[in-house]
Write a structure and sequence with these properties.
Layout lengths: L2 H25 L7 H20 L7 H20 L8 H20 L2 H25 L6 H16 L6 H23 L4
Helix pairs in contact: 1-3, 1-6, 2-3, 2-4, 2-5, 4-5, 5-7, 6-7
Amino acid sequence: MTLQAFFGIAAGLLEFASCAVYIVSILNRNTKPDRVTWWILAVVTGMLTASYYASGARATMWLPLVYTLCFVITGVLSIKYGDGPVTLSLLDRVSVLGALLAGLVWWFFNSPILALYMNIAVDFIALLPTIYKSYQRPSTESKSAWFFAASASLLNVFAIDQWVFAVALYPLYLFIANTAIAYFIVRGKRA
């Protein structure tokens, strides 16, 4: 086993721990996941995982696989324990449309890399409500779960076995996004 493969597996396991912490926090009603965001993230991350693998990623695949599973579970839990309306906002519709377009681009142009780039952009758009919520209402998110997620993302950066743009971009994006959310939650709301 290579060192990068070890870091990739460790990242997936740490994210699985993050998911468990997040689920417990949801069930204890300490965390209120945005109802729509997590379903969109599940769809987008599923497509990201497929296009990322098709783009050549291997050692860094564990994290997106675990994300997809955890996002589906969180989406299911958000129906009962979530926050926000069940209707799709303009941002949500743009995210869903973007994910569908990325799939069509992949299919028509046989370009998983282009689909990967599109899905990363869509993932960021879908994550905006959670970023905003962690900034405005950090008490509605789990500090420890997001700390684990940021740490898992860092491990996944160490798992990059091919330093080519298509393989390195997604782990670097995840590290930046998860670290920003964790920072906002730890920092707390400013007056």
